[in-house]
Amino acid sequence: MSGVQQVPAETNEELLAAVLGRLVADSTHTVVGANSPIPASAALLAAGLSEGNHQVTILGSREFMQFTDGGKELFDYAAQGRMDAFFVGGGQIDGQANINLVGVGDYPGTKLRLPGSFGSAYLYHLVPNVVLFRKEHSRRVLVPKVDFISAAGLSPANHYRVGGPRWLVTELVVMKFDADRGRFYLQSIHAGHDLDEVLDRTGFEFDYDPEPAVTPPVDDQELALLRTSVRESLQPVYPGFCSRAFGQ
Amino acid sequence: MSGVQQVPAETNEELLAAVLGRLVADSTHTVVGANSPIPASAALLAAGLSEGNHQVTILGSREFMQFTDGGKELFDYAAQGRMDAFFVGGGQIDGQANINLVGVGDYPGTKLRLPGSFGSAYLYHLVPNVVLFRKEHSRRVLVPKVDFISAAGLSPANHYRVGGPRWLVTELVVMKFDADRGRFYLQSIHAGHDLDEVLDRTGFEFDYDPEPAVTPPVDDQELALLRTSVRESLQPVYPGFCSRAFGQ
Amino acid sequence: MSRVTLEQLVSKISSGDKLAIPPEYSGVAMAATRALLTRGVKNLHLIACPQAGLQADLLIGAGCVATVEAAGISLGESGLAPRFRDAAQQGKIRMLDATCPAIQSGLQAAEKGIPFLPIRGILGSDLIDLRDDWLVIDNPYTEGDPLLLVPAIQPDVSLFHAPLGDDYGNVWVGIRRELMLMAHASKSTLVTVEKRYKGDLLADPVYAAGTIPHMYITATAEVAGGMRPLGFFGDGSVTDVEHLAGYEKLARSQQGFEQYLQEQGIEVGS
Amino acid sequence: MSRVTLEQLVSKISSGDKLAIPPEYSGVAMAATRALLTRGVKNLHLIACPQAGLQADLLIGAGCVATVEAAGISLGESGLAPRFRDAAQQGKIRMLDATCPAIQSGLQAAEKGIPFLPIRGILGSDLIDLRDDWLVIDNPYTEGDPLLLVPAIQPDVSLFHAPLGDDYGNVWVGIRRELMLMAHASKSTLVTVEKRYKGDLLADPVYAAGTIPHMYITATAEVAGGMRPLGFFGDGSVTDVEHLAGYEKLARSQQGFEQYLQEQGIEVGS
After folding, report:
1. Domain definitions of chain D by residue range
2. Local confidence band at A7 (pLDDT 50, 70, 90 cut-offs)
């Protein structure tokens, strides 16, 4: 057809935001930690597609902050069961979805001391849909066993646990965590990469289909929202990211 | 001497306020419960005599209310050790300084159900100087043993306790509670009453000097303060009391 | 969150609910209480946070209440709460006697999603013997230190009156943060608001500091004077003590109580 | 409460104190921190409530800190906190690793005068093995339900920057109530205030809602811009990320850190 406008190719950040956004599409309240522009974009995208029933809190922002009872309120709120989804990163992530934010080497981080566990050890158990997001996909990050468990992926049956890790997204893949099997399943590989590369760059074992699905690209609606309202909303919080991450 | 102005006689309320005020004179922060005009007068009197180092909180007032964290703050504040003195009443009070605010007869108050224990069961253990105040001095109120212990006067040595009852003031007497002996000691009898009357109208045993002291009358400074700044301060909280209780 | 009528608001309270109500020095939703009497709920588990007065006495007198959990029920300077006293004396209600900070700690435990809170004091009180949900344990941090635990109190619904509500469902309560604690702890929260605030309470940093965010608010109804005849921190109005004294006199008998309802034009539903 | 100079304010912090500091999204007293470096305290037990950044890194780099209790220490988007990282890797500081709500619960336990608070989650984390002051007990209310307890955290002194202080010693913090929690929990509280509020913050019901009453405040000093180079909720200012990036680069070595101090005109006392 003639006259169809060519949509410029999505950026890596846009793809990751769209992929993460789909994983929290059903939320009523998604909370994004500080210094997390891609998850913040994802949450705002999901909210924008939800017709107004999806609340977003972005820690560190002023506009997307509805709490009025100090730093503790977020954690109380999660324990009250009012928060559906949260994004967590990890210095190291292993195949049982344990995450390490404390340090590499023997404790207390003789090789590399990381900032610390922040709220992960708690929210990992209380938020129903925890999405792990680490852009870097490497054997350095995705390890057979983390050097330190900041937050545990699995719990014995008698531990009080209403939440946990459900997904892992990197620059290469979407993996779904199967808590019953205690393993990740390779849900899809982003376009331009293949299973061999994923196997080569992943330090832990995971389940997969020999012919894995390709991560669906950003669709027009997602892209339009990301480049308009999401970008505008994020501009005051992450000006540098906004000028760099979104296509025209 | 001629020309000396005759100071009008003190009212009963003024005497009780002055007596109670002296018992909290050393406080840095005295808290008065709701519906307690005489203790409120006492606290304001003591503060007025203290040269500004004595904070007063009057629950139910607007002006004498410094808390900003809801109803719980008072109790947290007491547990932090920031509150020196508190006044407590009692439907029944016994010789071991147990108080009953719940009911007369078998629980739950088959003969007379009273409002309930409010904060007494807690503050009685945490506020160093708890002053019991009950105007009515009778065998109905001052009983050998309360029907229900809302708050216990004595605790075993292993119970965490940093506060407790120190004084009992009625329309007849000032009694000092001796926690070691577990008994009240008759400190003084208000002018116009005598030991026989006190013995006759008290339902519990207590220690006393056969020739007990007379409660010192309200002095000129106390009287002047009560009738000026204390009355003015209390006017918005207890208008009826202020027009009735203070002499001219 | 939705903005509704007073009738729609109280329709969200059901028979058997654990209903949390605030102390009289705070914001009591009296108009909503009268509407609730007309609606005619039964078997409420009333949680006074931590004390109550006229509101509780009306609900008890009208037969709406099966259980009362409270540190105190009274009409303040107007005396004892007569329908409460009568019901308690005759064993018509199940009484869960407490002390103020125990109820506040129970609500805080629910707010924090934890099963209990430890609390100091209280040991030696007969209250403990009456409450089989209060446990005395050995403090795990200090040998030979008995310590009381009180369980979480999670109301099904909190009901109160607040000075301001905005179009987004945010509710301003100022320093009366026991109302915020109730909202945090409860499954749902219904609020009558004195006035509508034009704009977003959370967008003004000074108002935001005293605001319960909309996520905790199930519905609001605008009811000016919704606390009467009680006083209200929100506008500095004081309790109509003549009204309360008159009520106290009449309500000493059930017959007099019915007369009070009639005089006030309150029809009790069934 | 007293109004004092910045030097007088920090003179109330002593070597060995448990010093509580707020997170960077709140009000960090950076000018006071520089004055504290000049004063030259040692062996602080730093309690990040619950996380910290530049402030902690400066104190650690200058050798003021023996123990760090924190859920996280970083420079945010400017990267790892280099002096913290170095000290932790070399075992120069005793590290009490935590998670945000554990520190907040510890402060709340101190606020409530109770020995501990239970907390959900965290089980299975290696944090528990490292903390012999964290106990796992059987929930006394539910058999076979392991439950973590964290002990009360009572700082000797809390130090922060707030938007407003009045002549009575009241301090307005708005929605940043982690600052109020710190003040409630601490033995003493020192505050730099951005501006003087004329009048009594507690007398205005809208300001009162966000005010820490004077009873909790030991001293205040008026220091406009006292949070720089960090951002501040009080005036909407944002962190000087170039400053932080420059610091991060320099402070990777102790020598570079000394250079930074020199460039900033900060003399470190001994």
Report:
1. 2-100+153-263, 116-151
2. low
Domain that holds residue A32: 12-240
Distance of alpha carbon A216 from the chain centroid: 17
Comparison of pLDDT for C12 and B61, the residue scoring more = C12
Residue D71: what pLDDT?
98
C224-252 pLDDT, tens per residue?
Answer: 999 999 999 999 898 999 999 999 999 99
pTM of the entire predicted model: 0.97
In chain A, the number of structural domains is 1
Are the Cβ atoms of C114 and A79 closer than 8 angstroms?
A: yes
Average pLDDT over residues D41-54: 98
For residue D1, the model assigns a pLDDT of 58
A29 touches chain C (CB under 8 A): yes
Find the CATH number of the domain harbouring A227: 3.40.1080.10
User: Phi first, then psi: what are they for B183, rounded to 5°?
Assistant: -145, 155
Chains that touch C (3 or more CB pairs under 8 A): A, B, D
Average pLDDT of every residue of chain A = 94
Is residue A88 within 8 Å of residue A151, measured between CB atoms? yes
The H or E element that residue D207 is part of is helix D205-208
- What local confidence, expressed as pLDDT, does residue A61 receive? 87
Find the mean pLDDT for residues C148-167.
Answer: 98
Partner-chain contact A76 C209, CB within 8 Å: no
Token couple for A88 = 């967590």
Is B5 a member of any domain?
Answer: no
CATH superfamily of the domain spanning C2-100+153-263: Glutaconate Coenzyme A-transferase (3.40.1080.10)
- Determine, for residues D73 and A115 on separate chains, whether the beta-carbon distance falls below 8 Å: yes
Task: Determine, yes or no, domain membership for B247.
Answer: no
Chain C hits for A77, Cβ within 8 Å:
215
What distance in Å separates the CA atoms of residue C12 and residue C157, rounded to the nearest whole number?
Answer: 9
Among B residues 128-187, those touching chain C with beta carbons less than 8 Å apart: 148-152, 154-155, 158-161
| DSSP one-letter string for D211-265 | EE-GGG--EEEE-TTTTTTS-BTTTTB---HHHHHHHHHHTTSHHHHHHHHHHTT
Tell whether the model's pLDDT for residue A8 goes beyond 90: no
A62/D145 Cβ within 8 A: no
User: What is the Cα–Cα distance from D151 to A39, expressed in whole angstroms?
Assistant: 34
Q: What is the mean pLDDT of the segment spanning D154-178?
A: 98
CA angle, C186 then C188 then C190, to 5°: 110
Least CB–CB distance from C206: residue in D120, D141, D207: D207
Question: Once rounded to an integer, what is the mean pLDDT over residues C138-145?
Answer: 97
Kindly determine whether residue B66 and residue D214, on different chains, have CB atoms separated by under 8 Å: yes
Nearest residue on chain C to A62, alpha-carbon basis? C203
ipTM of the complex: 0.96
Residue A246 lies in a domain: no
Find the mean pLDDT for residues C18-28.
Answer: 96
Which residues 211-240 on chain B approach chain C with CB closer than 8 angstroms? none
- Please report whether residue A5 resides in a domain: no
